[in-house]
Design brief:
The structure is a single chain. By secondary structure, this protein is an alpha/beta fold. It folds into two domains: 3-105; 129-320, Rossmann fold (3-Layer(aba) Sandwich). It is built from twelve helices and seven strands. The chain has helices at residues 3-32, 36-57, 63-82, 111-126, 145-164, 183-196, 206-218, 224-232, 252-265, 278-285, 287-294, 309-320, and strands at residues 104-105, 108-109, 172-176, 201-205, 236-242, 269-274, 299-303. Helix 5 runs parallel beside helix 6 (183-196), helix 7 runs antiparallel to helix 8 and helix 9 (252-265) runs parallel beside helix 11. The chain starts with a helix and ends with a helix.
Length: 321
């Protein structure tokens, strides 16, 4: 599903919300109009409003009409109070009173609409998965001052990177480093930040994309394209733990190269995390994938250094116990 598809769904949801609110209000009015007394007063008031407007347009005296209108309005109020109603009961109760469920306020996008799109994007891209956010970022888990400083620099750098999107110098980004240095955590933070900006960003493990490659390779029905489209359509694709997936003949390397090539051609941004070095990439995936992932022109490598943070957290937890 593309971002435009998601926006279309949100627009349809807003149109339905607005129509439902108006229908509920109309149903209340129609129910009260069954009473002949109220029906007579209601339509009398409507006719007076029309007559007064016409007289004012032609600059004719309408003081008598206005007096009658005020008297009719009083009778309506008396009727409504007697039946524990008010004229507000005939007005739609919108989910957002600011934009009245149009998504727009004075030509600008309403805050509620932006939030609805963000939530729809999150649901479409990550479902109910809870991802880490930059507010969860902790430098104190590092075992030394140098690593703490590097983690702080990394956080600032990545936040600026997300903010600069789509005006990035590179379309492919690789977070590299040893096990446990924070690459996957950083990838989740970046994903969350993109989604909060309203960017359609989808995150997968390398194992998951390998499964999609295999389904694409072995499917010969009209459903075939949907497997690759899940990876080609997002504006930002994030793939965790490249190099941990099983190598499938005629599948893993071929379709990884296809994915990289197609996304680069479309000008779309792709992130990876990996424990592999450039030499490891070359050995595992061959020259074609290496040229896409390790080209200084097309790709940017970001190195995470230091000790295993997961191990550090475990040790601190054990000490507390």
């Amino acid at each position: 599903m593309t971002k435009q598809d998601i926006v279309t769904q949100v627009n349809q949801a807003y149109a339905k919300k607005r129509a439902d609110a108006q229908a509920r209000a109309l149903a209340v009015l129609q129910n009260v109009l069954r009473d002949k007394t109220f029906e007579t007063l209601y339509y009398k008031k409507k006719q007076l409003e029309f007559d007064i407007a016409k007289h004012e347009f032609f600059k004719e005296d309408c003081s008598s009409l206005k007096n009658t209108y005020l008297q009719t309005q009083k009778e309506i109020q008396t009727y409504l109070q007697k039946h524990h109603l008010s004229e507000k009961d005939f007005e739609p109760t919108y989910a957002c009173p600011i934009c009245q469920d149009t998504g727009r306020v004075n030509g600008n996008i309403c805050a509620c609409y932006k939030e609805a799109v963000r939530n729809a994007l999150k649901q479409a891209c990550i479902g109910n998965r809870n991802l880490a956010v930059f507010d969860d970022w902790r430098e104190d888990v590092a075992t030394n001052q140098e690593q703490r400083a590097e983690l702080q620099k990394a956080k600032v750098y990545l936040q600026k990177l997300v903010h600069a999107y789509p005006k990035l110098l590179h379309k492919t980004w690789v977070f590299a480093g040893c096990t446990g240095v924070g690459k996957s955590f950083a990838l989740e933070c970046v994903t969350s930040a993109f989604l909060n900006r309203g960017v359609d960003a989808c995150i997968y493990t390398s194992f998951q994309i390998n499964e999609l490659f295999l389904k694409y390779h072995t499917t010969f029905t009209e459903e075939k394209e949907q497997y690759m489209n899940q990876l080609l359509e997002p504006s930002v694709l994030l793939i965790d733990d490249l190099g941990t997936e099983p190598m499938l003949n005629n599948v893993t390397i071929n379709y990884l190269y296809l994915l990289l090539t197609e996304r680069m051609s479309a000008g779309k941004t792709t992130f990876f995390t990996t424990n592999l070095s450039p030499n490891n990439i070359l050995e595992r995936y061959g020259e074609r994938v290496f040229s896409r992932l390790c080209s200084t022109k097309d790709a940017k490598w970001f190195k995470f250094i230091g000790d295993d943070l997961r191990l550090s957290l475990t040790k601190k937890s054990l000490k507390k116990e």
